[in-house]
UniProtKB/TrEMBL annotation:
<dbReference type="InterPro" id="IPR006330">
    <property type="entry name" value="Ado/ade_deaminase"/>
</dbReference>
<protein>
    <submittedName>
        <fullName>Adenosine deaminase</fullName>
        <ecNumber>3.5.4.4</ecNumber>
    </submittedName>
</protein>
<keyword id="KW-0378">Hydrolase</keyword>
<dbReference type="Pfam" id="PF00962">
    <property type="entry name" value="A_deaminase"/>
</dbReference>
<dbReference type="InterPro" id="IPR032466">
    <property type="entry name" value="Metal_Hydrolase"/>
</dbReference>
<feature type="domain" description="Adenosine deaminase">
    <location>
        <begin position="13"/>
        <end position="327"/>
    </location>
</feature>
<dbReference type="InterPro" id="IPR001365">
    <property type="entry name" value="A_deaminase_dom"/>
</dbReference>
<keyword id="KW-0479">Metal-binding</keyword>
<comment type="similarity">
    <text>Belongs to the metallo-dependent hydrolases superfamily. Adenosine and AMP deaminases family.</text>
</comment>
<keyword id="KW-0862">Zinc</keyword>
<dbReference type="GO" id="GO:0016787">
    <property type="term" value="F:hydrolase activity"/>
</dbReference>
Length: 334
């Protein structure tokens, strides 16, 4: 009997806009580096709390003792993204995690950008880096990071990010850093609406002029904010597996993304830290299909929202949108 097959989600062209470099290297690359260092590396099945996650997270940058170690990890990441159908990746980079061993923020950033460019040529994946301030820790070096971002604006760096677990994050402290980046034409992409409620999202929009939000799912708690995000086309880069694994939502089935999508918000699906959560970007799309019961046209809208990333070149944007349309036209795929 003829059986309708479902479209293969790996083949759906995607923009991956919310992934942290150090939490996204493929496991085999980290394990190989750890072996060279004589250390055992493994990813636990569970994190009892968020602090144990941060402790584990911090071990990986320390494995990179040379610029070539770091470059190798960056190249491996781009190759693993290519295998997931990603055409544009925008990893959040924190050169400050490597500079104690590898030199200045500028030198470390250059190594990352060069490796992305090289692997991008090999794979066809365009990579833009979101140079990211950790708002829990980096107040003293925030402007330094913004200046590095500004110097590489349009040459590998596509935005200034803010990320922190404490929300609202008293983001007005970072206004001057945001202004430095914005003067160079870079957008601000802020973590908000993850641990903090709707007020944390409003804070990022109003205090820093953020034009994209990393997470943002807690907008669901405020109808007015939902309307604002939809009207202003603020893209929210959501990460259902991460939210579940860190205990922020109890079940992926209950994630607000489908409701926010139907309310008109531009949402992308992302892995956040695929190394640590053992789930790549395609797994998030599988959740949209299996746990949220969304149709393929609805699922495609997550991929299409990625085209709103301002750092993406027009050629990649066209490739993404045409690829999504072609995917939807497929009757079935193996
Ligand atoms: Zn994140």
């Amino acid at each position: 009997m003829w059986k309708q097959k479902t479209r293969n989600l790996r083949n759906l062209p995607k923009a991956h806009l919310h992934l942290h470099l150090d939490g996204s290297y493929p496991g085999y690359a980290v394990e190989a580096l750890a072996r060279r260092r004589g250390v055992h590396f493994s990813v636990p099945d569970n994190f009892p709390d968020v602090w144990s996650f941060f402790d584990a997270y911090g071990t990986v940058p320390k494995l990179a003792e040379t610029h070539e170690d770091l470059a190798g990890l960056c190249r491996a990441l781009v190759h693993s993204e290519a295998a997931e159908g990603v055409v544009y990746a925008e990893p959040a980079i924190e050169p400050q995690l490597y500079s104690p061993r590898l030199g200045s923020l500028e030198q470390v950033t250059k190594t990352m950008l060069a490796a992305f460019g090289e692997a991008g040529k090999d794979t066809g994946v365009e990579v833009g880096a979101l140079l990211t301030i950790n708002t829990d820790e980096n107040l003293e070096i925030a402007e330094d990071l913004a200046y590095v971002a500004a110097r590489h604006a349009g040459r590998g760096v596509t935005g200034l990010g803010t990320a922190g677990f404490v929300e609202p994050g008293n983001l007005r402290r970072y206004r001057s850093s945001a202004s430095i980046a914005q003067a160079s034409g870079l957008p601000i992409v802020s973590h908000a609406g993850q641990t903090g409620g709707p007020e944390s999202i409003t804070e990022a929009l109003d205090e820093l002029g953020a034009t994209r939000i990393s997470h943002g799912f807690r907008a669901i708690e405020c109808t007015e904010l939902v309307h604002r995000l939809a009207d202003e086309k603020i893209v929210c880069d959501m990460c259902p597996v991460s939210n579940h694994r860190l205990g922020i939502i109890s079940k992926v089935e209950d994630h607000p993304a489908p409701r926010l999508l139907r309310a008109g918000i531009q949402i992308t699906l992302n892995a956040d830290d695929p190394l640590w959560f053992k789930a790549g970007i395609t797994d998030q799309y599988e959740i949209a299909r299996k746990s949220w019961g969304l149709s393929d046209p609805e699922i495609a809208s997550f991929a299409r929202a990625g085209a709103l990333a301002t750092g993406m070149s027009s050629g990649t944007r066209q490739r993404l949108l045409e690829g999504v349309a072609a995917w939807l036209k497929e009757e079935n795929s193996p």
